[in-house]
Amino acid sequence: MKRTITAILIGCCFIWVSSGKADETTKKENSHRLPVAEYVDKMKAGWIGQMAGVGWGAPTEFKHLAKMIPEGDMPAWTPEMINQFEQDDIYVEMTFLRTLDEHGLDVSIRQAGIDFANSGYQLWHANLYGRENLRQGIAPPDSGHPKFSKHSDDIDYQIEADYSGLISPGMPNQVIELGEKFGRLMNYGDGVYGGQFVGAAYAAAFFENDMETNIKTALQSIPSESQYHECISDVLKWYKQYPNQWQKCWELIQEKYHDNPDYRRWSCSGTESEFNIDAKINGAYIVMGLLYGKGDPDNTIIISTRCGQDSDCNPSNAAGILFTTIGYDNLPARYVSALNEAGKFSHTPYDFPTLIKVCETLTRQAVYKYGGTIEKGDNGEEILVIPIAQPKPGKPEKSWAPGPIANSRFSPQEKAEIYMYYISDMDAAIKKFAPGWKVTNCGDSMEPGLHARFRGKANVLVTHPAEDKTSCIISRKVTIPENKKTYLFLQVSHHPQGDWMLKVRADGKELLSQSIGRESVSTDWADIKVDLSAYAGKEILLELLNEPSGWAWEAAYWARVEIVSR
Fold first, then answer.
1. How many Å apart are CA 64 and CA 69, to the nearest integer?
2. How many domains in the chain?
3. How far is CA 373 from the centre of its chain?
4. Cα distance between residue 201 and residue 214, in whole Å
């Protein structure tokens, strides 16, 4: 009897040990294992791919609309093209990285909106309208809703979503979550899905080198009912039919996703325009490069570029995904030999090494957040252990038939955190800034209106000429007192990359003409004093001109417009 009990106990112990080994085996089978050093190598390559693609394609951007770029018009690559530190297609997404770096992966969408609202770079399309909505107090997700923007299906978040995959190796649900947080600052529907697709393709690229499999995997992260999903699925289908004829595939994409108005129902340029910045067709051009490039870095960039339209952003996304599969140490020398690692990305605190370190830190946090661990291997190397998870895409939505708004508005306390908060209605802006004055011939470039803050000054009025041959004018009729000295005091500034001519006229007579720019203003602000005493006892028309001087960054910034008599 004793022998029997012992045998049973031994058997139980054997079963328990065997079960534990089976559980451990199952756990390994259900997890990705990625050495940290390999992760960093691939992530670095992803950033290099972005820089290479945008640098090579930049000379062609929007110069070939609704047509392929001829082979002879494709620029030649030079190693110096890699240093894209002034490219908005690179540095805008670093605003999102900075938010995650400062506030953590669980940062609220409202804080993300405040940080984006406070960005100081020039923007266009969905980014511009989303940021303007934020600065007007429309909080996310409404800032990207079609009710408040005709650009919600534009390419913008797709351009900027690379970061989301580069800090989410094998974690598609983090990519989806980041898209729901940062993508909704400016986009909706297909505009958000484009970014989630690109981010998911990066996340898969750490473990999947075959581009066809990668793309199918990334599609699982967006709603299958969406037109974006339909578009990428079509490209996969046409690639199967014409595996060596990318021009034929391009023609099929053009016919369905450019010429057919059913697939441009929220096109900001209209359904007849050759200009097409819709996320779907540009996403198709990313996939074209990945499939027909067949793993070759040059061919991937060249094909994505030669598809036309946004022909620097699309090869940037394509090359970033492909280069991630290759890894930094395996890249051809021509892509890294001239890299200036000390170069600082514009409007960010990051140089290349700092950027890589921030991404590694965020990825370590993400691994734990999504149920993984970081283990030590036999040789002491750190290994990211990442649970394999089924993607959970968001709900289907369409910009041309959107769901209800969230009625989301920033609180007064939140508005106080938005230094760039401004009044865009110029009549209301000038009334608050300088009562009695009026503004005429003011264009809509560079966010004219009353800004809460600029270069350390509060309540700054921004104007911009409507056309390159005429001036924006601030004016009023004023009676100059007798027996007093009267002066006009101005405090003005300029965009960091531009200048403009300040002119002051009284009854048409020019009293002052002065350039306001980097070369002429030694500090951020120029203090101007104009003597009006010669007009004592008279009513005059006083005009302050924001005159263009080359039509580049011509905004005028006014911190003070005041008439003082003593």
1. 6
2. 2
3. 31
4. 6
Residue 102: both structure tokens together: 């400062």
- Contact call for residues 94 and 355 (beta carbons, < 8 A): yes
How many CA atoms, within 13 angstroms, populate the side-chain half-sphere of residue 380?
0
In degrees, to the nearest 5, what angle opens at C-alpha 317 toward C-alphas 292 and 35? 95
The Cα–Cα gap between 300 and 302 comes to 6
**Strand 449-454 vs strand 457-463: parallel, antiparallel, or unpaired?**
antiparallel
Q: How far apart are the first and last CA of the chain?
A: 116
pLDDT below 70 — which residues of the chain? 1-28, 420-421
> pLDDT value at position 122?
80
Which tokens sit at 496? 């960091």
174-205 pLDDT, tens digit each = 999 999 999 999 999 999 999 999 999 999 99
Neighbours of 500 (CB within 10 A): 29
Determine the number of helices (DSSP H) and then strands (DSSP E) in the chain.
18, 14
Asked whether the beta carbons of 556 and 463 are under 8 A apart, the reply is yes
Residue 252 CB burial class (10 angstroms; 0-12, 13-18, ≥19): middle
Cα–Cα dist 535/483, whole Å: 11
Helix 36-57 to helix 313-326 angle (10° resolution) is 150
pTM above 0.70, yes or no: yes
Give the type of residue at 296: D
Same domain, 444 and 528: yes
At residue 17, the pLDDT reads 36
Contacts of 244 (CB under 8 A, 6+ apart): none
Going through 184-294 in order, the beta strands assigned E by DSSP cover none
SS3 (DSSP) at 197:
helix
DSSP-derived letter for residue 84 is -
C-alpha distances out from residue 417 to 98, 112, 413, Å: 16, 12, 7
Q: Which amino acid is at 420?
A: M
- Whether residues 373 and 433 fall in one domain: no
Q: Residues 505, 373: one domain?
A: no
What tokens appear for 466 in the block? 């409507």
Domain co-membership, 125 together with 268: yes
User: Token match 């661990």: residue?
Assistant: 373
Nearest-angstrom CA–CA distance, 365 and 361: 7
In a shared domain, residues 358 and 472: no
Cα–Cα distance between 157 and 196 in angstroms, integer?
Answer: 9
Q: Which amino acid is at 48?
A: I
Among residues 387, 406, 431, the one where a domain terminates is 387
Both 370 and 437 in a single domain? no
Strands (E), 305-456: 373-376, 382-387, 422-423, 438-440, 449-454
Residue count (the chain)? 566
The conformational region for residue 62 under phi > 0 = left, psi -120 to 50 = alpha, else beta, is left
Task: Assess whether 383 and 436 both reside in one domain.
Answer: no
The angle, 0 to 180 degrees and rounded to 10, between the axes of the packed helices 172-182 and 88-103 is 100
Question: Checking DSSP bridges between strand 373-376 and strand 438-440, what pairing results, if any?
Answer: unpaired
